[in-house]
Write a structure and sequence with these properties.
247 residues, mainly alpha, 10 helices, globular
Amino acid sequence: AAALWRLSPAQAAGVCLVGCCPGGVASNVVSLLARADVPLSITMTTCSTVAACFLTPILAALCAGAKAELNRAALAASTVQVVLAPVALGLALRSCFPKKCDRAQPFLAPTAALLVAWICGSVVAKTSAGAAAAGAGRVLGALLCLHGLGFGLGYAAAKAAGLDEAARRTVSIETGMQNSALAVVLAGAAGLPPAAKLPGAISATIHSIMGSVLARRWRRQMPTIPRRPAPVFERVAWSGTPYPARA
């Protein structure tokens, strides 16, 4: 996508960082709205988040390293701090203080949304006045291709694997939606120019809109979801109804 839209090396590195990031928590919400398989969504998000501590620095060095010089040590350290530390802290708090976490749960999603909006908005504001915004239209086109391919190829691969409709939607959403805020943090930690942060900031809006449109369309088509017990960690981390099960 970066080569197709002829992005600058810094912007191309930012797009590569977005593609190397794991799935975000927003994909779980979109899966719920799309009547997909929420336990599977949480499982995929958890596995990709844990694996990101090891794989994201390697993938970023392979993909973005050819576009711009990366500080690999800082990239790995930031990935652990941004991905592994919050997840471990959240699981620990959930295990030690389940009742307090239940009371705080209604406020967590709006708070997270405000924090992500603040991070991405600040990045766009800082880069919009400089030369980094010169190719913002091309960055937007590249991100539309990146996330569009993620949604489409994820659904096609799940269908080829013989998964049911709910699982196909889940894989599509998990593949098409990345933790874009992490890409912004990693771009700064890797010592890249400010232009490399712009794709991550724009991506947070792009994949949310695309996922919401798909969720609205899929929600009108209720799939038949087989009943099965939720994973152990899903029962710990999720206190609500995981998905609308049907006989």
